[in-house]
Description:
Distance between the termini of chain B: 17 Å
Strand content of chain B: under 5%
Strand content of chain A: under 5%
Structural class of chain A: mainly alpha
Number of domains of chain A: 1
Largest sheet of chain A: none
Number of helices of chain B: 20
Order of helices and strands of chain A: HHH
Number of helices of chain A: 3
Shape of chain B: globular
Number of strands of chain A: 0
Structural class of chain B: mainly alpha
Helix content of chain A: 55-70%
CATH class of chain A: Mainly Alpha
Low-confidence stretches of chain A: none
Largest interface: A-B, 35 and 36 residues
Radius of gyration of chain B: 21 Å
CATH architecture of chain A: Orthogonal Bundle
Radius of gyration of chain A: 20 Å
Oligomer: heterodimer
Low-confidence stretches of chain B: none
Amino acid sequence: MSIYLLCLIIFSLGIYCVVRKRNVIKIIIGVIILEYAVNLFFVLVAYRVNGRAPIFSAEQEVLNMVDPLPHALVLTAIVIGLATTALLVGIAMRLYEKYRTFDITKIRELKG
Amino acid sequence: MMPAENIIPLFVAVALAGAFIVALAGGKVRWAPDALGNLFTLALTVLSVVSVLAVRQYGVLVYSVGAWKPPVGIAMVLDGLTSFMLVTVNLMAFIITVFSVNYMEKYTSKWKFYCLFLLMVAGMNGVIISGDMFNLFVFLEIASVASYALVAFGTERQELEAAFKYAVMGTVGSLFTLLGIVFLYSYTSTLNMADMAQVLIQKGGKDITLMVSVLFIMGFGLKAALVPFHAWLPDAHPSAPAPISAMLSGVLIKSLGIYALCRVFYNVIGIDQAVSSVLLFLGALSMVVGVFLAIGQWDFKRLLAYHSISQIGYVVLGIGLGTPLGILGGLFHLFNHSVFKSLLFLNSGAVEYSTGTRDLKEMGGLASKMPLTGTTSLIASMSIAGIPPFNGFWSKLIIIIAAVQAGRYGYAFWAVVASVLTLASFMKVMKYAFLDRLKEKWNAVKEVPVFMKLSMSALALICILGGVLLVGALNDAFLERATDVLLEGTKYAAIVFKGIG
């Protein structure tokens, strides 16, 4: 139960940050927090109390093991997050060159 | 002979290889990006037609990546719906790359455009053929990241603003999808769609599917620009270069949004009354709100973007009805919309290419100077407004009949209202842009170059002949099979496992 609460809190923080902040860089940080909340949740879902690494050996029988699949998947998710973040930061740099500000209330030419 | 399922991974592999080769050769030889880009999209179109024939002959095909059998390994599935979507995406991609040969001349680095374009096509094809939830997310992100970059392609003030907005909203939407996938994984301990459907039937689990449904409607609904989640679309689509607007409105919102939504709800989670009414409501809302917002627009491309929201509403309404006729109408409208909306965006691109403006008030009488653009855009306008015998009429008719048959008179009424308003707003476009009196400053305007003409005429031809898809063998091979996949619901699992072989 606690992992759900923990991830929910981080996720909500990220959403708050994306929705409420006026600064482009802060919005990007909000997106990163969101990504990390989901990744953390993915890893914690796989965790088992007192579990061990899922490596089979001849001598001992492994009864309680940690689910290895999400770890592999989270790596992919992190790489995707990196690509998105890099693109967002790139766009933010170009935005600053054109508008000379990071304030999104001043970057508003598209309306209607 | 090569087993038939080996065709499946080619849809991703050819597009990815194309992106790589274009990037490798593109900067050095001047004609290479055009030639290679068109060659690869043509190859993909041919492959997608072959895939329709393969499904017709062999039934459902499953490719196991790395020879790991599906419940464990990654599966790629080719069935009726998949081949239907593949034809839609790749045909549009090919016609649009033909258009870009001339249109993209004004941008400096054409090879970057084709590289990103092919990456986006690879992502969309991947979403469509994937039989694995996590892979669906990965391909969805490939296509999305490429599209964020393409929206910002001009790197001017408005393009960057739109791209930033789109990228932030798109990323948040994808994360909702990922969260939904994590919930499903933690409950079912599998990622394979077919296996997941079976486990969900065995274990029940009403609460978890409710939670996941909400997350998926938010995630995929944002990609499909359904109304409460549509804010990015009217900025992003007009700001991109015209071929990209056509691609985004024509196929991206459908393959990432509608297709993924259908596949997950119908074949994996299993659609129930609650979800179906939510889809109906969101569809009708998008339909009406989109068209009302569109009527007041004076920017040609922005008007078209709002119409995309409205037309997507029709598709979702048809699919949400859940009856065979409704789904058939929804899928047919999906195909038709990708044809006429691509054509309209290409028309707006052609006008912008020749006159340099997107403002409807500044145009006027262009049909006399640009006869082909004028004619094709008249055809597309009549098609989107639902005037017989163009393709848009048939699909709208089917959706409205299906709504009446299902006893949803209210939704049928709103569908008719939205259609009338669409007609009104396109009469405005035709009057201000193409008919009327020619303004003096446009006396020197010339018709667009040959490749742009070629692709616009091809799309107009499909608009005129589109209704043929409803009759006889073509309907049987193309639309019926796609409809059947959605109708079979969660029995999909058993069919896929039989296909593994």
